[in-house]
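Sample A.
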Amino acid sequence: MTMLLSSFVAIVGDVLSQALTGSRDFRRVSIFALLGGLFFGPVLHYWYGVIGRFGGQLQKKYPTMPKVVRVLCQVGLNQSVGAVLINVGFIFSFYALTCLVRGTPFMLSTASQLVKSKMGTSLRANWSVWPLASFLNFLLVPAQYRVLFTQCVAALYNMLLSLIANS
């Protein structure tokens, strides 16, 4: 279910992005559908488990730690390690899937260059949306609804990623 929902959210984000730029590219939509289902869905599902366990370990080790401090630690982990790894994976996967869908050869040197050239823009976009969204998610949203909350925010964020990836 997570993979299907992630594909749908990625499609919505790219369709919104294309609507803003006046373009219509079905291949691009299919690339984002694959990205959502094959990359974002599994990676974020696993990553939220890691962050949840990290928060649980903090609570166990420091039982008097205020919840807001624990949440800030989770956001810090998410926006440092998680943001870098996920954005590198996104840029690399976007290029690989673009090559696959368009039938062009995959070049590791090109993928590496794309990561170098797009990483700063991608991280700035990430940090303009996800620190606050993550803070609210970890602070207010029950664990069983965190992925759903993230998917709602992700529809708008995927629009930003699509604009960046296709610029």
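Sample B, a different protein:
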Amino acid sequence: MNFITVKLNALIFIFSFFLFVLLFSYSSYKFIINDSLELEKKQNLNNVNTIVNSMNHNLEHITKITNDYSKWDDTYAFMIDGNKDYINENFREGTNTLELLDASFIIYLNKKNKVLFSKYQEKVLEKNNKDFEKILTNKFSMLNSTSTIIKYNSLFMYIVKAEVLKSDFTGSVQGWIYSGKVITNKNINHISTVFKSIKLSEYLFSKENYEISLSLLKNIKFNAQLFDKELINTIAFYDVFNHSVFSIITKSDRELINNSEKTIFILDSFTAFFLFIITLIIYKSQKVLINYNKLLEIKVNRRTHQLSKSLRKLQTSNKKLYTLANIDTLTKICNRRSYFNKSEKLLTQAIKENKTFYVLMIDIDHFKKVNDTYGHAIGDKVLIEFCMIINTVISDEVFARIGGEEFCITFFNTEEEKINTISENIRKACEQASIKINDKKIKFTISLGLSSRAEYTNIDDILCVCDELLYKAKDGGRNRLVRSSPHSN
């Protein structure tokens, strides 16, 4: 190995090392970051679910309290007779009922939608109570009960409407109770502490990533936006009429991704050093193995060439053996052995599948006279010409020479009428053919015997029948087809 080769190999080694390290760094980065990203998405989804489930729980709490009051016999009586003792016992000054119920307001309406009583914690609502109550009754007049969210002026709130019935849910509806709670930034900040910031907003996004449906808040959509250092969620809430009401916007640091990037840097640095040592060792070992492999390759190629040559000879010999065993040397069609093998299989299949099976035996008329008159060379030409004629008429049938001038054709799953037509076409083609020898033309005819399989189960029995039919054709004047009597096939 000269100096130039060594230098070239060294450059290849350095390039390969840096390429490998680069690919490893990229792969590890993609693998770890992708895993971290999926984990971050799942964690973020869980955090979002915590918020929406807490809000749904708050609405469920208000719904339960409202249903308790609306299905109370004292409330039912109050809606009928307007007894002021009910109000005095439950909502007089100093009772702090709304604070205990964790509600911002409660409104009693009789069945004519007239306000019998209302109480507010929120000064803004209390100041505009007439307008607020009118909006509520108009908005939910078509609903007997509901639990949803609304926006009033700049306030967002939970709203519950419940029918007033007896405690056993009997009696006619005597009115409704509305209750609710104002949703503030302070409220939602208590829900989850995992976010860096969380606030209410009227902002709506154009396309959501996820949809959430809970027991009461059935239509919640949210969009998660990933930035380099920050993750921002916009959670949109819709009311019972599927109208957008408000959004909650959360922000959080992408600590998981940031920590993963630091981990990747440390891992890649350590791996690069480790790979450098390993690659160097492998490079040194390769130099030793290269020469050995070259010698081994030469030996393998030499041996492979010898085996290929032997295999080709074997394949050629096998082809010759197959031809000798199955093909008639003169006519190049199937010989007697091949015919019996193929026809026995077709006969078995015909019996098993109840298909038709016919054998046509053919003998060249006065063939011995042709040999005696013109010689065996001319007789061979007649045999070859005869086979060429047959091959132009038949397609994929088994055609074989089973004796000197005797031939057989096996028809499998072919209609008898078609076989008769083919047989006649063969007879006529031979009758019309002529072989030109110098200035003479030799003509020949054939006799044919056709038999179905009938009740026979082996090919020898069928051939015996064909042979008898063939000799009937000879005795009948030759150049004709004799068929067996009709049998079930």
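Observation for Sample B: The longest helix spans residues 255-326.
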